[in-house]
Design goal:
The protein contains ten helices and two strands, in the order ααααααββαααα. With 240 residues, it is mainly alpha-helical.
């Protein structure tokens, strides 16, 4: 049996986290560079600013910012570095950006049922409350963390495993709720084949991929093996 509390095991897990973070950052930078047509069109004013584009563009920028800051935090630094103080200095840019990117991605999916069910006030109120609850859990961890210094770097942010599990489970349920209400709403209203094709590409596929990607970090965080294992799959889950 592996002794997950062994400092050497935690150190090895921390090294895996550091390398995984940089891999995810490189992949996302490549993906962002090849798909920033919307941002470019907004900057060049080829398309008018519209509020539905806000969570899409904000989520992408926030995720890129958070990945960059997380990689900076895990880079080798002076032994005298104040890790917790350094993280607090970049709290808004890092932790807020990371969790806000999750909220924006899910909100981008929730906009569809919110528009489809515009004639049903009770459903829209329910969606607003569900969204507020999602952001509450995402922002709650900003005040419940500490930074573990491992292998000559600030290492990684330690979040309570219960909070981590709650965020992943709530996000999966939230995305499934948005997809279900979108499908039901489209079945009850006249729609073209193009709308269903868009839904299959941007809705069903997205939810299935994110749910599958979040199952592993949810299970590992719930097991609470050690502080490193609790967050080892967190960034890959956000990347997907």
């Amino acid at each position: 049996m592996v002794n997950w509390s062994d400092p050497d095991i935690i150190s090895d897990c921390s090294s895996i986290i550091e390398h995984t973070n940089f891999i995810c950052l490189g992949l996302y930078m490549w993906e962002y560079a090849g798909s920033w047509q919307v941002e470019l069109a907004l900057i060049c004013r080829r398309i008018p600013p519209r509020w539905p584009l806000l969570p899409y563009t904000a989520g992408r920028i926030l995720l890129l910012t958070s990945m960059t800051m997380i990689c900076w935090l895990s880079s080798p630094n002076s032994e005298n570095a104040d890790c917790h103080g350094a993280f607090l200095a970049f709290c808004l840019e890092c932790q807020f950006a990371a969790n806000a990117s999750i909220g924006c991605s899910s909100l981008n999916l929730m906009l569809r049922p919110f528009i489809i069910w515009r004639a049903f006030k009770s459903i829209r109120i329910f969606l607003v409350l569900a969204t507020i609850g999602h952001w509450f859990f995402l922002l709650r961890v900003m005040v419940h963390f500490y930074v573990m210094k491992v292998n000559g770097s600030c290492g990684f942010m330690v979040v309570d495993h219960t909070d981590m599990t709650t965020i992943f489970v709530y996000t999966m349920c939230y995305d499934l709720l948005a997809l279900t209400l979108t499908i039901v709403g489209l079945r009850n209203t006249p729609s073209s084949n193009a709308m269903w094709k868009t839904l299959r590409k941007q809705g069903i596929t997205y939810v299935l991929v994110t749910c599958l990607a979040n199952i592993v970090p949810t299970v590992v965080a719930a097991m609470n093996l050690n502080p490193a294992m609790n967050v080892i799959f967190a960034l890959p889950g956000k990347f997907f």
